[in-house]
Design a protein that fits this description.
By secondary structure, this protein is mainly beta. It has two domains: 373 residues, 6 Propeller (Neuraminidase), CATH 2.120.10; 104 residues, Sandwich (Immunoglobulin-like), CATH 2.60.40.1220. It has four helices and 32 strands. A hairpin with a 5-residue loop joins strand 12 and strand 13. The chain is globular.
């Protein structure tokens, strides 16, 4: 099949975010480009650079870990018009989905182990490779391992994919493990299916990105709760190897609801943020928190997360309510060139993204790419954040709204749904309801609207349509939809 025809089939099969028509997809990307432009980072001809992880180095270079097992040290990536220079630091590794650097050492998560890598003779090439941990099993190409950057105590958290995506054939497949600086490996939680990204949320708590599949109705961000169960019971067989975890949980019932099973299975950790399928990605991936102090626009301290299948970047915010994590996701930027696996903020406050199309169809047209998102300095009119309130939600905007329009309850449309918690693959949206906004109280500065709502539903995704809202200047929102996962309704 010609490449252009294959791409068209993928594009037509993947319903674009915010649109059913392919032309509207490109219109959205063009609108987004006014605020966040895509800058190409050229890759040398003949180099197949499938980025799986990034790290900033003290000398202003970017380290890139690849799926093909290389580490490249790259200068010039952060320049306004990048003309990068690539130096290969290490090779012969395996699927690098975690990369950190500290005190002259790289800490690498590959499928089989966490490795400390050093250039002892300082010739620019790695020459010492030390295994920190390899306590988990490996026997299949799909048994990926995703590692965090070093946390505040220099630990690395590793999320382990199941065997062949459906089974747990070897020890700790479907678990999260914490590897300490001296190599001690501590089981953290079970029940993971197919992770593709791990790191702290905006509050410094470790999360991971989970893909849709068995026992996962849609993609989601989940907190890595010590002692917790992330939802997929096939990995229960390894509790005998994890004395710190206590007895294995009760088996969940299939074709149930997550809220129902939370009452049966005390260790079950709900999805903190559900990314509704197709509307907000198909295979969410690496994520990072914006700590740029405003260099990347109005979204400081928010999570930016990629998607492999749809080649997009999205935003997310989280909060803890009644002791449970929950939050919202928001569209951000379409039109990236390949399937995204990793992202990294630069010292200049831009966002590097990269990945590959190897293994599964993606919407982006290239086999692999490195690109950079630069804020143009123009603030978009967007939904900045949604927070739960006992009687509804507080919606914050990036720019003042038209207070007359925003004060009218009929300016807002809202629906809710959940997913079937089941052994089968994925789930349709089920149990639909239509809550009603009964009152909207807009702040004097026009930046916030407190929506009082009749019909909040615990355990449901609350999907917002803000298409009637206008800014004080009369402009429409760049993106009119947002999605809040209401695990808990605040007590007060």
């Amino acid at each position: 099949m010609p490449n252009h025809l294959a791409l068209l089939i993928v594009l037509m099969a993947s319903v674009p975010l915010q649109a059913q028509k392919l032309g509207e997809y490109w219109d959205t990307a063009e609108q987004e480009a006014k605020y966040y432009r895509i800058v190409e980072v050229p890759i040398p001809k003949g180099m197949a650079l499938e980025a799986g992880s990034f790290e900033l180095l003290p000398d202003n270079r970017l380290a890139i870990g690849t799926r093909r097992g290389d580490i490249y040290l790259v200068s010039g990536v952060f320049d306004e018009n990048p003309q990068p220079q690539f130096e290969r630091y290490a090779s012969g590794l395996d699927e690098l989905f975690g990369l950190s650097y500290k005190d002259g050492h790289f800490y690498v998560t590959q499928q089989t182990e966490v490795t400390r890598i050093t250039d002892t003779d300082r010739d620019g090439r790695a020459d010492r490779f030390e295994t920190l941990s390899d306590v988990w099993g490996f026997g299949n190409y799909h048994e990926f391992a995703f590692g965090s950057k070093l946390d505040s105590e220099d630990n690395i958290w590793v999320a382990l994919c199941l065997s062949k995506s459906y089974h747990s054939d070897l020890p700790f497949r479907g678990w999260c493990m914490k590897v300490t600086p001296d190599g001690k490996t501590i089981p953290i939680c079970s029940g993971i299916r197919s992770p593709c990204g791990i790191g702290p949320n905006e509050h410094g708590v470790m999360f991971y990105a989970e893909s849709q599949g068995p026992w996962n109705g849609s993609c989601s961000l989940k907190v890595l709760e010590p002692g917790g169960f992330m939802g997929h019971p096939v990995s229960f067989k390894w509790y005998d190897l994890a004395e710190n975890m206590g007895p294995k949980p009760v088996e969940p019932n299939t074709r149930s609801r997550l809220l129902t099973e939370r009452n049966r299975v005390k260790e079950l950790v709900p999805y903190a943020v559900v990314f509704p399928y197709i509307k907000m990605g198909r295979s969410i991936s690496g994520f990072m928190v914006d700590r740029t102090e405003g260099k990347f626009g109005p979204f400081e301290n928010q999570i930016f997360i990629g998607d492999f299948s749809l080649s997009v970047v999205m935003r997310a915010t989280t909060e803890k309510v009644n002791g449970i994590w929950q939050g919202a996701c928001y569209p951000f930027r379409e039109g990236l060139a390949t399937g995204l696996l990793a992202c990294q903020f630069t010292p200049q406050g831009n966002l590097i993204v990269g990945g590959t199309n190897r293994g599964w169809p993606v919407r982006g047209p290239r086999e692999f790419a490195i690109q950079r998102l630069d804020w143009t300095g123009i603030t978009p009119f967007e939904i900045k954040q949604i927070n739960a309130r006992p009687d509804g939600f507080l919606v914050t905007f990036t720019k003042p709204v038209n207070r007359d329009i925003a004060s009218q309850p009929e300016s807002y449309a809202l629906k809710t749904y959940t997913h079937i918690y089941q052994q089968g693959y994925g789930s349709p949206e089920v149990d639909h309801t239509t809550p009603r906004v009964v009152r909207s109280v807009v702040s004097d500065d026009g930046l916030r609207a407190h929506l009082q709502i009749d019909g909040l539903v615990q355990g449901h995704v609350h999907e917002f349509d803000f298409s009637r809202i206008r800014s004080a200047e009369g402009n429409e929102l760049v993106h009119v939809n947002a999605y809040y996962t209401l695990n808990e309704i605040p007590a007060d």
